[in-house]
């Protein structure tokens, strides 16, 4: 079982290193999204920097890598009756690879898309509730960071309540929620000060 856990951790972390915003900005604009805006390698900064035209590719890369990490973990640990734990481990390690990517100088995103994908892979019921929380908050306030933080809190609570009899799943859910919130610490300070930027999409001029 230890071999399966270690293999899941390594594979999921390496999958997480393939950052959608960094990859697509390099492919499409021959640029690095981290050199623009907030310097973050995430979807929000990509949208602000390049517009929405290629955003679907960013989402696709981050969704596929996280889903793959969850599936690998679930498959490897299923024979030990820890499929759910394996999926959560895959999700956590993919998020760590996304946030702290060794292959990209440890400068990645904030893990929101990874968490969103993970919750639907693990339990679609929690995913639907968090989708309402996220989009409702963003539509009401135009603060993506606030929606992400509230959804992360809900992530930890949801898995704690529904999977209380699976302590490793609960631990993984709380850890992933705390990690996403920690990555938004500067946003939290700006929200408290009233200086957080509201979400807008840049209309990107045509580039050759």
Spell out the key features of this protein.
single chain, 208 residues, mainly alpha, globular, disordered C terminus
Strand tally, please? 0
Q: Identify low-pLDDT runs.
A: 203-208
User: Can you write the helix and strand succession as a string?
Assistant: HHHHHHHHHH
Main beta sheet: none
Tally of separate helices: 10
Task: Calculate Rg over CA atoms.
Answer: 17 Å
Number of domains: 1
Helix content: over 70%
**What is the average of the pLDDT values?**
89
The backbone outline, from C-alpha atoms, is globular
Give the end-to-end Cα distance, rounded to a whole number of Å.
Answer: 51 Å
Draw up the topology in text.
Layout: H1 2-16, H2 20-29, H3 43-50, H4 55-78, H5 83-99, H6 112-122, H7 124-141, H8 144-162, H9 167-183, H10 185-193
Helix pairs in contact: 1-4, 1-5, 2-3, 2-4, 4-5, 4-6, 5-6, 5-9, 6-7, 7-8, 8-9
């Amino acid at each position: 079982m230890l071999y399966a856990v270690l293999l899941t951790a390594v594979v999921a972390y390496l999958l997480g290193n393939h950052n959608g915003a960094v990859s697509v900005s390099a492919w499409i604009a021959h640029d690095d999204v981290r050199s623009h805006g907030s310097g973050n390698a995430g979807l929000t900064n990509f949208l602000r920097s390049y517009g929405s035209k290629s955003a679907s590719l960013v989402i696709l890369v981050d969704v596929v890598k996280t889903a793959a990490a969850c599936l690998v973990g679930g498959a490897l640990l299923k024979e030990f009756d820890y499929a759910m734990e394996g999926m959560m481990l895959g999700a956590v390690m993919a998020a760590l690879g996304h946030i702290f990517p060794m292959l990209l100088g440890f400068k990645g995103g904030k893990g929101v898309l990874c968490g969103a994908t993970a919750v639907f892979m693990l339990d679609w019921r929690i995913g639907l509730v968090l989708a309402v929380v996220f989009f409702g908050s963003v539509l009401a306030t135009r603060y993506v960071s606030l929606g992400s933080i509230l959804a992360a809190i809900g992530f930890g609570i949801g898995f704690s309540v529904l999977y209380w009899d699976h302590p490793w799943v609960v631990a993984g859910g709380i850890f992933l929620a705390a990690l996403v919130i920690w990555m938004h610490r500067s946003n939290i300070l700006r929200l408290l000060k009233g200086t957080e930027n509201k979400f807008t999409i840049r209309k990107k001029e045509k580039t050759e």
